[in-house]
């Protein structure tokens, strides 16, 4: 296990991403393609949870902004995922304001569900989900829990990074994630779910 309990495969993933982003900032188009390949599945899954079938169009708008402002980014692979998620969320909210509709959770692609992410005792809840089950269960979560779960497990952000994307306190996001995953795990009949949040979840809402 790596720092903060993250498995080494997540660190390897972020290491590859950070290296690709650094090369892309030096106008390496192949490196930008690598960064896109590593980030897009999680980003698209997150956007599907916000705008449903319009996710690909919103993602395209987000990537245009990402490419335009790439030289301004400072940080590592994990930071890049947070930065791109923030941009994508802004584009999604702009889209929803134009459409004048509420965010609507939608099905998650299976390859998105298989992406590495921060592990907790409830990760197995999402690992067992099919696309149809994801549509049903994620849509049943309160909005704050659904978005927190998408950012933490699908995009793979840690608590502070997810909090920055959402503009909330890290403790509030950790709690929303825990409650969402706990609810999903309970609905799936996953063992090992307790009534009390782990101490690492920090402050409550």
Q: Describe it for me?
A:
Mean pLDDT is 76; it is low at 1-11, 106-123 and 192-205. Helix 2 packs antiparallel against helix 3 and helix 2 packs across helix 4 (77-99). With 205 residues, the chain is mainly α. It has 10 helices and no strands.
Strand content: under 5%
| Poorly predicted sequence stretches spanning 5 or more consecutive residues | 1-11, 106-123, 192-205
Q: With helices defined by DSSP (H or I, 4 residues minimum), what is the helix count? A: 10
Order of helices and strands: HHHHHHHHHH
Give the gist of this structure.
This protein has 205 residues and is mainly alpha-helical.
SSE topology sketch:
Layout: H1 8-24, H2 29-51, H3 55-69, H4 77-99, H5 110-113, H6 123-127, H7 131-139, H8 143-155, H9 159-166, H10 170-188
Keywords:
single chain; 205 residues; mainly alpha; 10 helices; 66% helix; globular; disordered N terminus
């Amino acid at each position: 296990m790596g720092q903060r309990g993250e498995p080494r495969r997540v660190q390897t993933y972020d290491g590859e991403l950070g290296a690709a982003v650094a090369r892309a900032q030096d106008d390496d188009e192949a490196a930008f393609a690598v960064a896109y390949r590593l980030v897009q599945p999680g980003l698209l899954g997150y956007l599907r949870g916000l705008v449903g079938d319009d996710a690909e169009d919103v993602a395209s708008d987000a990537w245009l902004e990402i490419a335009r402002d790439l030289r301004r980014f400072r940080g590592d692979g994990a930071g890049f995922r947070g930065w791109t998620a923030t941009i994508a969320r802004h584009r999604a909210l702009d889209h929803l304001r134009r459409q004048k509709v509420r965010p609507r959770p939608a099905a998650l692609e299976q390859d998105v569900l298989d992406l590495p992410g921060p592990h907790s005792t409830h990760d197995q809840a999402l690992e067992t989900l099919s696309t149809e089950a994801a549509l049903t269960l994620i849509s049943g979560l309160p909005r704050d829990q659904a978005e927190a779960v998408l950012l933490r497990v699908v995009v793979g952000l840690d608590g502070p990074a997810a909090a920055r994307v959402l503009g909330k306190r890290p403790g509030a996001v950790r709690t929303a994630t825990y409650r969402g995953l706990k609810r999903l795990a309970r609905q799936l009949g996953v063992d090992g779910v307790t009534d009390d949040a782990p101490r690492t979840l920090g402050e409550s809402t």
